[in-house]
Amino acid sequence: MAASVAPFLCWEHCVWRQVPRRSPPRRRGAPRVAITGDIELPSTLGPENFVGRANGTIYWGIEGSDTDVLVLDESTAEFSTATLPEALWWPSHKGISRVVGGEDGVLRVIRLINNELKVFARRRPDSDDDDEWSLEMQLRLPEATLGLPGREESFFQQEAMIVSANTRYVLLTPSEETWLFSVELDTMRVERNHERNKYAGAAHPYKLPWPPALADPSRERGQD
């Protein structure tokens, strides 16, 4: 039963597994994770299931489910499920679907359908009708990427793939070869030369510790 497990969560870059409640006690300061309702959590949840983070919520696709996604509220550390319209979500979500937010608080779903990038928005997230979605923008990738450096005629014979996405842009590549390019979500402008297009993975800010750890010269001389 789902209620008999205490999940250990690892967000995007490692595998998530259920562990028994008899596992070692939670360390001080670690977040509590609760399961709300009768939710059957998958035995493993890898990075390929991660589909986005938006407005304080993390989303994972559920294998074999046509419209449901697994949801983690970051403020309460509680799991639940959400249902998306069939026109927005398919069982084969890997590499073709992402959930993102925005400064306006609107929830958006990015979809690749026959190499056409589509951005759907839920304009009234607090309304009674949560299924009221609209097509906000769309872009044909084969035509939009013509003339970009490194663009090959053999690209886009198969469905392209979403590498990463956030509130500002989506990073993509054709399936035939790793050829990264990005699309700005506010203007749908296609970009190839930006620094973000040089790394095939999600990027996160990193700060070096300060002050830096300095070696003691006298100690080093004493070891010689």
Automatic annotation (TrEMBL):
Residues 41-213 form the F-box protein AT5G49610-like beta-propeller domain. It holds the Pfam family Beta-prop_AT5G49610-like. It comes from the Eukaryota. This is F-box protein AT5G49610-like beta-propeller domain-containing protein. It comes from Aegilops tauschii.
